[in-house]
Design goal:
The chain is of the alpha+beta class and 88 residues long. It has one domain: Double Stranded RNA Binding Domain (2-Layer Sandwich). It has 3 helices and 4 strands; from the N terminus they run H-E-E-E-E-H-H. A hairpin with a 2-residue loop joins strand 3 and strand 4. The longest helix has 16 residues, at 63-78.
């Protein structure tokens, strides 16, 4: 099920875990850390290799903005541009 803003706001990392991932769609997920940080990541493949793109932190980057960034990166990926190098 896709994420909602309420789910993002209430995302927590359970005690004793290194991180908790909340999946949206199309490889986008919110990673909650024990210290309280929440980071947007997009998992994708290029050339048979799996990569992850860091999009930003929640709430500075909203759910809608993270989805738009994922869509923009996906378009670049379809053009043959490695998204990781696009953001570095």
């Amino acid at each position: 099920m896709p994420l909602t803003d309420a789910t993002c706001k209430n995302a927590r990392c359970p005690e004793g875990k290194a991180r908790e991932r909340y999946a949206d769609s199309g490889g986008l997920y919110l990673e909650a850390l024990p210290a309280g940080g929440k980071h947007w990541r997009w998992k994708y493949r290029i050339g048979g290799k799996e990569k992850r793109l860091a999009i930003g932190t929640y709430p500075a980057v909203t759910l809608a903005q993270a989805r738009q960034a994922r869509d923009d990166a996906r378009k670049k990926l379809l053009e043959g541009v490695d998204c990781w190098s696009m953001w570095t």
